[in-house]
Amino acid sequence: GMVAGPDTASLLHQPSRSIVKALDRAGKKVSDVDLFEINEAFAAVGIASMRDLGITDDIVNVNGGAIALGHPIGMSGNRLAITLLYELRRRGGGLGAAALCGGGGQGDALILRVD
Length: 115
Known about the structure:
The protein is α+β, with helices and mostly antiparallel strands. The chain has helices spanning 8-11, 14-26, 43-53, 66-69, 76-90, and strands at 35-38, 94-101, 107-114. A three-stranded mixed sheet has the order 1-2-3, sandwiched between helices. It is globular. The model is unreliable at 1-5 (pLDDT under 50).
């Protein structure tokens, strides 16, 4: 057979992999993070990422994810970062992680601290 595009099994795990790499670079652990924003291009991405990271839904996409809020093509990363920033600010600060998967099999993450 032929495959066009990334391996979808690996695509599901790219947000969690990118979060771990970004946290490593920042000298932090998953347990240091107060809130996560994980883009749900489809529901399985969020589920796989939570399982990979060992986190629960009470700290993930607390105001709704892409399925509820929308998936603005070309600016999903901005939506994640701004949603995370405002929620951390509302809670009085903390450490947050935002991540998404993208075409070609990449994963991108941002670690954000609000004091």
